[in-house]
Structure of Neutral zinc metallopeptidase:
Amino acid sequence: MDWVAARAPTLAEFEALAADAWENLPAEFREMAGDLLIRVEDFATDEVLKSLDIEDPFELTGLYQGVSLTKQSVMESAREPDMVFLYRRAILDEWTENGEELGHLIAHVLVHEIGHHFGFSDEDMEAIEAEVSV
């Protein structure tokens, strides 16, 4: 790779990578997640970091925001859709440290954020990631 001319993907380019990663996840996994929105931001907000007791914004690569499955009810009124936030700068920092293909790393973060929400084990998430062809 020509590192002299290399540059980090823009937010729009990163969103395209995230969309590709999402489309390459197993169909059953995507169906289970429903109408999930994926948002890309450079970093988590100070409010989010504070609520999670995280001081360094580079430590948070993603976050699932939504009503926990154990707290959802058919009686509840309309609510905002569930979202996964991907934090571009934190993911890029991890990417430069481990050299993993960026699309695979984005898929990894998506699987883990969604998987934790649904209570998947690490082994379950590893099996899902093994099916990804990014």
About this structure: The first strand starts at residue 37 and ends at 41. The radius of gyration is 15 Å. The domain at 11-64+79-130 is CATH 3.30.2010.20 (Zincin-like). Residues 15 and 40 are 6 Å apart (CA to CA).
